[in-house]
Structures are given as C-alpha cells and as structure tokens.
Amino acid sequence: MLVRVLLYVTELTLAVGIRSASAAALSADTNQSSPTPAADATVCEIAASPEAFDGKLLRIHAYINRGFEDSTLHDPSCPEEALVNWRGSSTPVPKIWSDFANEVGYWKVKGYAPLVKDDQLRLFRRLLDERSRTHQMTGATMTGTFYSGKPLKVNGRATTLRGYGHMGCCSLFVISTVESVDTDYANDLNYSAGDWNVGLPLGCTSEQMLGLPTNEMLLAWQLAANQGQDEWRYDAKQTAEDQLRKLKSGSFGSTSGGTTRLLVPGKSDLSAPADSRPAETLLETASTTFLKRFEWIEGDQTAHFVIVVTRPYWLLKTAGTPERVIWAPAAASVLNCQTPRTRNKKR
Q1: Burial of 270 from C-beta contacts in 10 A (0-12 / 13-18 / 19+)
Q2: In the chain, what are the helix, strand and coil shares in percent, each to the nearest 5?
Q3: What pLDDT, on the 0 to 100 scale, is given for residue 201?
Q4: What is the rounded CA–CA span in Å between residue 178 and residue 281?
Q5: Do 120 and 150 form a contact (C-beta atoms < 8 A)?
Q6: In 10 A of CB 239, how many CB atoms?
C-alpha cells in the first residue's frame, strides 16, 4: 500500500512538472514570436515631437551623413533642413544623431535591442564608408530605439543642445537592424548634407558668409521650371550669375552674415595678391556632375566672390527625374584677398 502511494505521488509530481515546463515553454515561445513591433515614423515627425517618440522602437527611412564629427539623420521629405538654407524656416530642424547598437556605450542609454549583424548591415557599413569619402549620404530603412534629448541649460538658460552626439547637439537613434539599403543614387544629384565651406585661396585672409535663397524659394523655382519658366536654372553658370547679381544688389544680404561689404582700396598697408586671372569675369574653378564652384574677382583685386551651386537630392521628388533637377546656390562668400604691401627700403 505504501509503495502504491509513493508511486502515485511520484507520477503526480512528474505530471505537474511536465505541465509547468510546457506552459513555461509555450509562454517563452509566445514572447519570442510576438516582440514589440516597431512603429513606422519619419525623421520629420520625430523632429516635430521628439518627446512623443522617446524610448520607442521605430522603423524609419533616412539618410545618414557620416563625416567629421557628424553622424546625423536626414530626410528629403523635410526640405527645411536639407542642404541649403533652413534659417528662415519655422519648421523644426531635425537634429538626430545615429549610432549602431554596439557603439552606444558612451551614451549610457538602456532598453535598446542588440545589433543584428547580417548582410544588410555589412552592405550598409561598406556604402557608408565609400560614399562618405565624397561627402555623400547613404540611405537605408532601419529599426532602432529613439531617445529624446532634453534641452541643456547653459548659465541657467535653455539651449538647442540636447545632450547626445557631437557637442551635445542632438537626440539619439540607436540602430539595431538594417532592413534594406538604398544602392541606386543619381550621379547628377548631390546627396550631401551641406556645402558651406568655400575655402580660402592663397593670399586671402578672411571670408564673410553671404545670404542664400531659402529652401522654400528653391522649391518654388523647381516648380516654375517644371512648368517651363526660368529654364535657365538648368544651367549652372547662369544660376551662379543670378546669385552674384542678387548678392551685389543686397537681395540676400540679411539672410546669413549681414550685408555685403567690399574693401575700400588704399585703406591699409595691404595690397591685392598677384593673380593672373581676369577680373570682373565669372570663372569656374571646380566642377563635378552635381557641384560647381565659381569665383568673381572685383576690379580692385581685393574682393573675391565665391559661389557654389549644386543640384540638391531632395528636389528629385518635385522634379520627377534627376536631369530635371535645377541648379541651386549652396554657398556664397566674399573673400578678403590682400598681402603686405611691398615697401622701398631707404638707403
């Protein structure tokens, strides 16, 4: 009798254990097969309400600008932040720093999924490296966790800095999965996040940034060109000539950097450097399929205008085809070009 009771208790214990183990396994399988789905979002939506997406797993399509002290996200559907001049816009400018999930230890964030290391990730990393050498962005559809940066205070005043990225510039997107990678880019379009630096030629000592058309203006110009108006905007040199006229007339003087002030000859111990190029002629000094640099030397040789025109990638949606994207001013400066004046020594 005692043996039967022991056998019954043993069988009952085993049955309960098996049922408990099966239930736990079923629960684990259910959890694994039903992870929290990523919510679809755009860079523009996140920029408009970053707090609403804080800590959430998101799926986005965006371009990453990988360069010196830069790993920010960009989206052609937010032209207010793209490439040229967002300073006159009231639309929030996306400032979202991106890092892969295996590279975010410095930011001390928690709750993100581990990085999926597969062929899509390897392709994305390779293109990021290749395209960044020519300052071109790379696009992909990614899932990751977003962390909304909190406005930082300096001397008790809130700033636009948000704590992540270079100098605390941004919010943070931690990439866990690369779902697909953009591999088709038009050679005639500029996928850069900006071309503000025009450089200082030999003999030039300073530059003054000059105004540019806003992105809203560029969009209006593209729409007009689509309808057959001002088709000269399809020509890079004519676009640069138009920008030069507007700079000299003061049309863009207050947009970025104040009014255009040319140097007055004879007011210092400096003179114009030797330059064999013709003055008062628009010269093309650098050229690619999507970006051209022009220079105008004033008659006194001391002031040089530099204008960079390009074909922005974000206008493609409006233009329809790459060859119908207009040329647009992307950078403008006036340079101070003087060297110490040669003096005759007294005997």
Answers
A1: middle
A2: 30, 25, 40
A3: 75
A4: 49
A5: no
A6: 24
Q: Return the closest-CA partner of residue 313 out of 190, 223, 226.
A: 190
List Cβ neighbours of 346 (8 Å cut-off, separation of 6 or more). none
Long-range contacts, 116-119 (Cβ 8 Å, 24+): 116/176, 116/177, 116/178, 118/178
- CB neighbours (10 Å) of residue 338? 22
Q: Is residue 340 classed as helix, strand or coil in its secondary structure?
A: strand
Query: Residue 136 forms beta bridges with which residues?
Result: none
- Per-residue pLDDT tens digits for 151-183: 777 777 776 677 899 888 899 999 999 999 999
CA-closest candidate to residue 327, choices 239, 244, 243: 239
Above 60 in pLDDT, residue 304? yes
3-state SS assignment for residue 170: strand
Q: Which pair of structure tokens corresponds to residue 292?
A: 């051209």
Beta strands 57-67 and 138-147: pairing type?
A: antiparallel
Instruction: Flag whether the pTM goes above 0.85.
Output: no
Chain CA centroid to CA 226, Å: 26
Q: What is the spatial distance between Cα 168 and Cα 69, in angstroms, rounded to a whole number?
A: 11
Q: How many helices (H) and strands (E) does the chain have?
A: 6, 15
For residue 271, the model assigns a pLDDT of 62
Task: List the domain boundaries for the chain.
Answer: 39-181, 204-340
Query: Which parts of 202-235 fold into alpha helices (H)?
Result: 215-226
Contact predicate 315/211, CB 8 Å: no
Residue 327 CA to residue 310 CA, distance in Å, equals 5
Q: Note the pLDDT tens digit of each residue in 239-281.
A: 999 999 988 887 665 444 444 555 444 455 556 666 778 888 9
Cα(114)–Cα(252) distance, integer angstroms: 48
Residue 256 burial (CB count, 10 A): 15
Give the containing element (helix H, strand E) for 99: strand 96-100
What tokens does 335 get?
């340079």
Residue 95 tokens read as: 């400032």
Q: Which amino acid is at 35?
A: P
Beta strands 171-181 and 138-147, pairing class: antiparallel
Distances in Å between the Cα of 322 and the Cα atoms of 182, 292, 312 are 16, 17, 10
